[in-house]
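ZP: hey, is the nicotinamide-adenine-dinucleotide complex queued? I don't see it on the tracker
AM: it wasn't, my bad. submitting now with these inputs:
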Amino acid sequence: MAAKDYNPYKTAQDQFDRVAGMLDLDQATRDLLRNSLREHHFSIPVQMDDGGKKVFRGFRVLHNDARGPGKGGIRFHPQETIDTVRALAMWMTWKCAVVDIPLGGGKGGVICDPHNLSLREQELLCRGWVRQLARNVGPFSDVPAPDVMTNAQHMLWMLDEYETIHGARYPGFITGKPVGMGGSLGRTEATGYGLIFTVREALKEMGIKPEGTVASVQGFGNVAQYAIELFTRIGGEVLCVSCWDQEKQQAFTYKKQDGIDLGELFPITDSFGSINQEKARELGYEALPGGAWLEQEVDILIPAALENEINAENVNKISKRVKLIAEGANGPTTIEADEGIKEKGIFLIPDFLANAGGVTCSYFEQVQSNMNYYWEKDEVLGKLDIKMTAAFMATSEMAKKNKLYMRDAAYVIAIDRVARASQNRGWV
Ligand code: NAD
């Protein structure tokens, strides 16, 4: 299917329908959960720097809040569509449910390209987004966060507007705030560390000691860097990483036979996670094609860059040595590739479980903000470990007991929890 024809909402609904069948959900529950509970579509007029007015389209979708307030980011993107936002909101519901945090799923967006907006225009856009929704979002109803092309500064402008409208301080209205302004320690590390907590548990179950295991990683951004840091601390080695080269407009894989060294790579990596090729070669790294990360003789593959990277074309190139795939990225594996992974007998930790450390820490940020009392980093990361480990064990238990693929087991747990919460409230 051509990328332009790909509709993530259709994919999300198809995935839901399949698991609804496995759970034998009644029709009303299916009708409730395969659609958004509430959607807001609105216009945001902004006075531009040239004195003219421009009107932007904004969205907020609440997929389900039976288990707690909605949670999910706000994306600024020129190709944003309501169906993308709907799909992402639904996936947030399942992600919060599988790690058993008391939050539902939401997502927001604005059709815009922030690269073409001055800081002042971005601030007005953020404040305008909140003005349209100030009575429909909040610390106890629906809690936004940063996402594609939005950052901590955008969150602070949104918080300020929300608090101005409501006349009091509500730091729990939004997450992704800077530390010292309501943000949580440990959030930067949370997704990468959370991923490795699940890898550690999976290896334990397979009877493999992490010491001496070798991994290959796609991506060298926030998720990958912290995952690599913790993985090497528990004794593993990373043979190679791949990243995008903005100048050459293609991806490369950087490999060192005795393992990559973060201390060497950090100084030659930019803030977008791109490694400088010339400097990497000087340090003795081989620069291989972007897809080479997947074909290495390693024990563990960690896709932590983009969606659809393990697909029907390359799944057979995965080496026989690979025993575990831990999905750091969202949606890195296509449905067709899942079949290949099953045939090869590779253990998979699915994305919405493996990368749920981020949202779990955002939940911790919200709890701290609502209390206006902030925890030490060790406390945050300790609580994160407990949550991720418990979620992994529950999913793996479900998979073993019912002979399910791990992705299906995670979906069954998540959808069952949300279905029960909706039924227990008497909604269906
Ligand atoms: P990031 O922007 O910090 O890093 C992305 C990395 O991917 C960069 O190193 C970039 O060079 C690399 N990359 C881009 N295109 C590539 C290609 N074609 N081949 C190889 N590498 C390529 O992003 P991130 O925050 O680390 O997020 C990575 C993935 O994890 C995304 O799918 C994101 O949705 C998901 N995720 C992130 C978080 C989080 O808290 N950051 C939470 C959950 C899921």
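AM: back. The chain has a mean pLDDT of 96.
ZP: great, adding it to the tracker
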